[in-house]
Write a structure and sequence with these properties.
- This protein is an alpha/beta fold.
- It has 2 domains: 1-95 and 244-331, Isopropylmalate Dehydrogenase (3-Layer(aba) Sandwich); 107-235, Isopropylmalate Dehydrogenase.
- The chain has 11 helices and 12 strands.
- The protein has helices spanning 14-27, 41-47, 53-60, 82-93, 140-155, 171-184, 197-206, 218-231, 270-282, 287-303, 315-329, and strands spanning 3-10, 32-36, 64-69, 97-104, 107-114, 124-126, 132-134, 160-165, 191-196, 213-216, 239-243, 249-253.
- The strands form 2 sheets. The protein has a 10-stranded mixed beta sheet, sandwiched between helices. Strands 6-7 form a two-stranded antiparallel ribbon.
- A hairpin with a 5-residue loop joins strand 6 and strand 7 (132-134).
- Helix 9 runs antiparallel to helix 10 (287-303).
Length: 331
Amino acid sequence: MSSRIVLLPGDGIGPEVAAEAIRVLEALPIDVVVDERPFGGAAIDALGDPLPEETLAACRQADAVLLGAVGGPKWEGAAVRPEAGLLRLRSELDVYANLRPAVGVGVDLLIVRELVGGLYFGTRGVRDDGTVFDTLEYRPDQVERVARRAFELARGRSARLLSVDKANVLDTSRMWRRVVSEVAADYPDVELAHGLVDSVAMQIVTAPGSFDVLVMENMFGDILSDVAAAVSGGLGIASSASLGASSPGVFEPVHGSAPDIAGTGAANPTAMLRSLALALEHSLGEPELARHVDAAVEAALVAAPTPDVGGRATTSEFGDAVLASLEVAVA
């Protein structure tokens, strides 16, 4: 039985890097149907909605969603922005656990970011006196489910989990720490520690190799995952997976749409291809193929680097190098 992937190329370099992911996917010995749908700014231009209902319906029926990139200066300040489609997609699919691996020289950590709660989804508004507010809200069950996901992932690695909060200041963080500690009782084989976000941020910069799996709320995860990406090679090569309980996962590069290089052939597809590997591992049940793709990407970074990592290869030439490595590995 074939798997079904919905492809959301999006904006800027999104279609270019997504095309390389599909080239690689088609070279693998698996039966996959790819359904391309409009999303982001491209969908606003075509249909007036960054997440058309037909696109959302297709995503609900998929085994995995591959997303390129969204946004760009064309839509800045507009009444409807591409990023609204991304937030709605995450919320509608309830992909509450965002996995952000950071792998580089002396670094191999995994940040598990709660993705559909917290400050980005709380009550917001403007009061009569001009005060603007955004509310940080969490329910205990939201914390529990992402904590369990993090414990399971830690169990499959070095069995060490660091929960990150700001419990010395925030009531939400005190509740977060309490719930994570309660969940820990079900995972006696995993060593749990707690850390304050400001201290952890410093340690990621100064000693990233000391971490394995970290779990944290939405905004902390947004910031610290970018810091971790920076110390492991940069946002341009960082991947992510957003997972729910039963919905299809959403797999996307961390980088933006890079409109300044769109159409030039200079985009680095590493993050998109690493996101494809995450999809193979977490949604398509192909962990061995995921490892092959990751290894082929690492080889291509040496054999055919793109300009952002000091080389001269084009997007498609990088893809050619990945395919050449895969041809040997999966023959």
